[in-house]
Amino acid sequence: MSRKRPGPKSRISGVHLSISCTDTEWSRSRRLADAAGKTISRYLIDCAMEAAALMERGEAGDALPAGAEGLVLDPAQQQALLDGVRDLAARLPGDRQIAEQAAMAAFVFDAVLLDMAGRGLREERDALLAAHFGGARAAEIAAGVDRRAAERGLSP
Predict the structure, then answer these.
(1) Mean pLDDT in runs of 10 for the chain (156 residues)?
(2) Are residues 144 and 82 in the same domain?
(3) I want to staple 138 with a disulfide (CB 3.0 to 4.6 A). Which of 16, 87, 112, 130 is the partner?
């Protein structure tokens, strides 16, 4: 005896699949699907089909699917920005100006990290921090950002 699944009569029949993901991946997938006006299932299938079409056309396999969010700067650009700020700070006269510039750079850096935490991009953020600061220091920075994000209600 088979049981019918509850749901609309227009439900597409076919293969039913179960997937596993982290809480962060699930939260991000839900937000992206909602933003696209789709169910998570439909959004994931559409992303997979779009990626397959890109590969068949020989286009970049790492392109983001429609509606996906990418980071603004890649790791090399982030390093170049940091190097530029350090160079600028080294050329400024007087300790006060250097301290002010360092404080402004730290403020921008913290704002970017808080934004990533608020958008559920913790895994991406942690990977970037680890690449630039090493594992132990990256974990300290991430813990501080997570604490401040929670205090400000920015956690997804």
Answers:
(1) 51 74 86 88 84 74 52 74 80 71 79 83 86 86 86 73
(2) yes
(3) 130
Q: What is the pTM of this model?
A: 0.38
Looking at the domain assignment, is residue 127 inside a domain? yes
Whether the CB-CB separation of 154 and 117 falls below 8 Å is answered with: yes
Alpha helices in the chain (DSSP H): 23-36, 40-56, 75-91, 95-118, 122-133, 135-151
Out of 47, 70, 93, a domain closes at 70
Whether 141 and 133 have beta carbons less than 8 Å apart is answered as yes
Which H/E stretch holds residue 13? none
Select from 72, 68, 71, 50 the least CA-distant residue to 59: 50
Read off the pLDDT of residues 25-36 as tens digits, 9 standing for 90 and up. Answer: 888 888 888 888
Residue recorded with tokens 């630039």 = 132
Structural domain range at position 110: 75-151
